[in-house]
Amino acid sequence: MPLYTSPFLLYPSPTAPTVNCHFPRRRGATCPSSSLRRRFTSKVKPFLPLPLHSAKVFRKPNLQCSASSLYMSAEESTSTSQGSLLYSRAFWVSESIIAWNVYVGNGSCYLLASKTAALSLTSDGILGEDVKVKLEEDKHGLPENVKEKFPHIKDYRAFNVPPDLDAKPLLKCQLAVATFNSDGRCSDATGLQLPGILDDLFSYNGPLGALYSKQSVSLYLWAPTAQEVCVCIYKEPSGGSPLEVVQLEEFNGVWSTKGPKSWEGCYYVYEVSVYHPSTLRIEKCYANDPYARGLSSDGRRTLLVNLDSDNIKPEGWDKLVDEKPDILSFSDISIYELHIRDFSASDQAVHPEFRGGYLAFTLQDSAGAIHLKKLSNAGITHVHLLPAFQFAGVDDEKENWKSVDPEVLEKFPSDSDKQQALITAIQNDDGYNWGYNPVLWGVPKGSYASNANGTYRAIEFRKMVQALNRFGLRVVLDVVYNHLHGSGPVDDNSVLDKIVPGYYLRRNTDGFIEHSTCVNNTASEHFMVERLIVDDLLHWAVDYKVDGFRFDLMGHIMRRTMVKAKDALCSLTKERDGVDGSSIYIYGEGWDFGEVANNGRGINASQFNIHGTGIGSFNDRIRDAILGGSPFGHPLQQGFVTGLLLQPNGHDHGPEAVAEHMLAESKDHIQVGMAANLRDFVLTNCEGKEVYINSRG
């Protein structure tokens, strides 16, 4: 049965750097390309840094209890301190159950809470609690629904929380669990991970972000662990004192306020007082709105922009659905990858203020526009734009960029160390970056706009989509929901981890953030993370009329999330939403590695699991067979079209018989790739055997 995926969805080919020189292009100073990330994360365990400021909170002698736990893995016993609040090794998985891999025996187990984050460990045990609640071990273990949601802790012991305990106020506190021997001495203690109970008590489907009416502007923020939330309203994008500081009111984990219509066009910042597990403190965090739709040029303030306003819609915008190029079948899709800045950065036919930005696509006679029209006439159906959301690594204020004069570069050979050195010296301050450093998923990148303040980025992004559609090309947006660039309470690029610390980012069994994607993995298995992803996709599809989505490291997202996203997009209609959702195509990198491998955090959207969904996956088998090698192999290893056996390049492929067999196997992989989504295809392989090909082949 067809899966609506093309056999030629190969791993994206590199985009050439803007200047004519040979140096590795980069996605960002902290985030290597997907292939390099795979190489890095498959062999190196994620770095587990100690929490920020931890030395100021606890002195070393106070980090351990008097005895070690009886149940402790060899890895834990050699790599971490037992009984430390720096770790969060217990999981509050539902309102009534805490999971912890600890043996109590004849002793006892307690839940402790401190509203002021005053918990500390001493030789006498744990001190500073406001609340101390006894937990009872459930000899039946964790229930099946908990094991399904948290497969990585399925063998942990279950401890029942008293049924009359009001858990909601405790979730705003510093929390710990501790075990005590029969003589009353503390034997173990650790912090708690809370996503399970937060999903259980606070899953929410109501309004979030800014909502606009004729009379007012309303703000909604999901922050169930926050002790207090205020919003600071500013007239200007930077500098000055706030016009107002308004305290939000909470109802069941959602903080909200209603302001005057005059707020529209202003900027705002949330001030969130919340316990942060990375510092073991109550922190006052300043953060943008996770549902931001506009930003200031320095990215520090959220713009109150109503995307339904007619003054930020290009002429004919509401009727663009009727101008979309026809696509009769997803199997007809042919995709061209493109970097927004590179498209026009060196095109002298483009006005200097438009170069490298959204508006360059609106010109009819530029070299890039002429080329795109030719591609459309030749059969290309979609343009895949590398990340265009708000990402770190490129200053949105162009006057802060540094560059190297191309004439200076041309004086040196393109592979010279001197040219490389000139580029390296300014690479963290120039205007170039792939964009895989997400900060806010729902706002167009400011550096591609003629002015990063105000509504320019919104209207100019819309003009770009409209122009590409009129060239005969649909638009695919590269979305990076698998990780975020920032985390913690003070990082300027941290947003979600300031609002609900410890929830949006996936953590390991010690409580530290997973980094297998490259940095700050997100956790779509958590309800409100999944909701944010689906909401964001709908936002881009409806508000910007994007025609498809390419998911970076899709395998790190849960299959359920991807299916929900596809169903939500397919439900969009021309009559109600101005979008034909049935024509929106989604696909991604279905690699299976890191902590999610083998369904380690739930059924993930890997190549193994995505069949039958109508969601496409990149085909690494046909890529490696055609080109040779792999992200982990030697760069000179040859493939079917690069001279394997027939035109040796000097690389040692082994004896001739081995190279011949490699070539024959490459042919098999290419045939399988060409068969693509025909799950019942039977291959006669190079050994003359019939092989049944399925989704795991």
Report on the architecture of this protein.
By secondary structure, this protein is of the alpha+beta class. It has four domains: 34-40 and 308-621, Glycosidases (TIM Barrel, Alpha-Beta Barrel), CATH 3.20.20.80; 64-201, Sandwich (Immunoglobulin-like); 202-303, Immunoglobulin-like; 622-692, no CATH class. Helices cover 21% and strands 20% of the residues. α13 (527-543) runs parallel beside α14 (559-570) and α16 (620-627) packs antiparallel against α17.
CATH homologous superfamily descriptor of the largest domain: Glycosidases
Number of helices: 17
Rg over CA atoms:
27 Å
**Secondary structure: number of strands:** 28
The geometry reads as globular
Span of the ends, CA to CA: 16 Å
CATH class of the largest domain: Alpha Beta
Q: How many distinct domains?
A: 4
Residue-averaged pLDDT, rounded? 88
Quick one: biggest sheet?
7 strands, mixed, barrel
Strand content: 15-25%
Q: Regions with pLDDT < 50 over 5+ consecutive residues?
A: 1-82
CATH topology of the largest domain: TIM Barrel
Order of strands across the biggest sheet?
Answer: 1-2-7-6-3-8-9
Structural class: alpha+beta
Helical content, roughly?
10-25%
The CATH architecture assignment of the largest domain turns out to be Alpha-Beta Barrel
